[in-house]
Design brief:
The chain has 297 residues and is α/β, with parallel strands linked by helices. It has two domains: 5-184, NAD(P)-binding Rossmann-like Domain (Rossmann fold, 3-Layer(aba) Sandwich), CATH 3.40.50.720; 191-291, Orthogonal Bundle (N-(1-d-carboxylethyl)-l-norvaline Dehydrogenase, domain 2). 46% of the residues lie in helices and 15% in strands. It is built from twelve helices and ten strands. The chain has helices at residues 13-24, 36-56, 61-69, 94-107, 123-127, 132-135, 163-175, 191-207, 213-224, 230-237, 239-253, 262-269; strands spanning 5-9, 28-32, 71-74, 85-88, 113-116, 138-143, 152-157, 179-184, 282-283, 292-293. The strands form two sheets. An eight-stranded mixed β-sheet has the order 3-2-1-4-5-6-7-8. It has a two-stranded antiparallel ribbon with strand order 9-10. β6 (138-143) and β7 (152-157) form a beta hairpin. The protein is globular and about 55 Å long. Bound molecules: 3-hydroxybutanoyl-coenzyme A (3HC). 3-hydroxybutanoyl-coenzyme A binds next to α2 and α10. The site of 3-hydroxybutanoyl-coenzyme A (3HC) has 17 residues, from α2 and α10.
Length: 297
């Protein structure tokens, strides 16, 4: 089966980025959100991102219009019936995901590949909500924020994934302009397995007075050539998301390095989620481009 039509579930930061990337690569894309308002918000973000590529000359105004023309949105799961692959990027809640997959399994054609963009939930646990035939066509496709720019996609297989389906998913990742890496269905896959303990260690270093927010960020940015220091990155990813992933990883492996530090928990409880809420390790409310470090200790 050739992949021509891509269904994307969820039009938040990741879903909209995945939809934009697939449409840019020439696929027909349909995005499903739960309300029209959420569809509109997601598509406004896509317009903005495409506008940035057009401004830079990476794409022409004509290509921008063509990419936009390949994308539609819907609030009905039934509209995804004829998709060749479904990429799910909805809320990180196992039950919600399982229920959505259960319904889609009835709606989609037997050949449709089901993929999840989850960062930390087990693919196997989602897969078992579908029929035995579909379980062989169930994989993880984990993208990175901002999806239109980040070159990596983790292609995740379970114990039951069919070899041909897996290879097709790897090729699909390439056709999106990404570099696919192969990973097994182990919580955190490759990137979060290594990234999450690093981010949590940075918070522990801050708690222990090793350095300030700015100094630790500068140390890793300028000393290691990382594009962002760990606190800027945490604010960018979302501290609620980081906390949630760490909790899942800690519950899975029961290893101290995945345990969320008390400061992270308190920040999340206090609504300091990072950029999206205006404050995290930095305060973005006055000048988002030049945020000031928060006094957290
Ligand atoms: N769409 C289009 N263009 C965009 C864009 C978007 N969404 N976001 C940024 N850009 C463009 C900007 O317009 C800018 O263009 P220019 O060079 O022509 O001015 C260029 O990208 C660089 O952007 P900025 O000047 O704003 O900032 P940076 O140079 O710092 O680049 C970044 C931004 C690419 C996000 C870079 O900082 C970076 O790579 N950061 C690390 C991101 C990262 O690690 N992501 C992974 C997070 S982990 C994850 O997602 C997994 C999950 O499971 C937790």
């Amino acid at each position: 089966m050739e992949i021509k039509k891509v269904g994307v579930l969820g039009c938040g930061l990741m879903g909209s980025g995945i939809a934009q990337t697939a449409a840019t690569a020439g696929f027909e894309v349909i995005v499903r959100e739960v309300t029209d308002d959420l569809c509109e918000r997601g598509f406004a973000g896509i317009e903005k991102s495409l506008g940035r590529f057009a401004e830079k000359g990476t794409i022409t105004a004509e290509q921008q219009a063509q990419i936009r023309g390949r994308m539609t949105s819907t609030t009905k799961l039934n509209d995804l019936a004829d998709c060749d692959i479904i990429i799910e990027a909805i809320i990180e809640n196992l039950e919600t995901k399982r229920e959505t997959y259960r319904q889609l399994d009835q709606i989609c054609k037997p050949e449709t590949i089901f993929a999840s963009n989850t960062s930390s939930i087990s693919i196997t646990e989602m897969m078992t909500a579908t029929s035995p035939e579909r379980q062989q066509r169930f994989i993880g496709l984990h993208f990175f924020n901002p999806v239109p720019l980040m070159k990596l996609v983790e292609v995740v297989r379970t114990i039951l994934t069919d070899d041909d389906v897996y290879e097709q998913a790897v090729e699909f990742g390439k056709s999106l302009g990404k570099v696919p890496v192969r990973a097994g269905d182990k919580t955190g896959f490759i990137v979060n397995r290594l990234l999450v303990p690093y981010m949590l260690d940075a918070i522990r270093a801050l708690e222990e007075g090793v350095g300030s927010i700015v100094d630790i960020d500068n140390a890793m940015k300028l000393g290691c050539g990382y594009p962002m220091g760990p606190f800027t990155l945490g604010d960018f990813v979302g501290l609620d998301t980081t906390y949630y992933i760490a909790e899942i990883m800690f519950n899975e492996f029961r290893e101290k390095r995945f345990a969320p530090p008390p400061l992270l928990k308190r920040m999340v409880l206090a609504g300091l989620y990072g950029r999206k809420s205006g404050r995290g390790f930095y305060d973005y409310t006055k000048d988002a481009k030049n945020p000031t470090p928060m006094n957290l200790l």
